[in-house]
Write a structure and sequence with these properties.
The chain contains two helices and three strands, in the order αββαβ. It is of the alpha+beta class. The protein has one domain. It has a three-stranded antiparallel sheet with strand order 2-1-3, with helices on one face. A hairpin with a 2-residue loop joins strand 1 and strand 2. The longest helix is centred in the C-terminal third of the chain and has 11 residues.
Length: 78
């Protein structure tokens, strides 16, 4: 996983949407959910309740973040 730079984080923050308008998404690497800001990874097989979920990204923005970080976006809900 590639950790986002501060410049990338600021760019992403400026494109976030209000809660309820985004598509809930987790970012996975090798089947493990990751924190896109720190690179911290959940243990493989851990319960999804312990995974970071991002609620304010459009699907297009999540796809871009996944490309930048080398992760796979997985949407839930909507």
């Amino acid at each position: 996983m590639t950790i986002l730079t501060q410049e990338q984080i600021e760019s992403i923050k400026s494109r976030m949407v209000p809660m309820g308008e985004g598509a809930p998404v987790r970012f996975l690497e090798d089947g493990c959910a990751v924190n896109i800001s720190t690179g911290d990874k959940c243990r493989k097989g851990s319960n999804v309740i312990h995974h970071p979920v991002y609620w304010t990204f459009t699907k297009e923005l999540a796809q871009e973040i996944a490309s930048l970080t080398g992760t796979k976006p997985v949407w839930s809900g909507k």
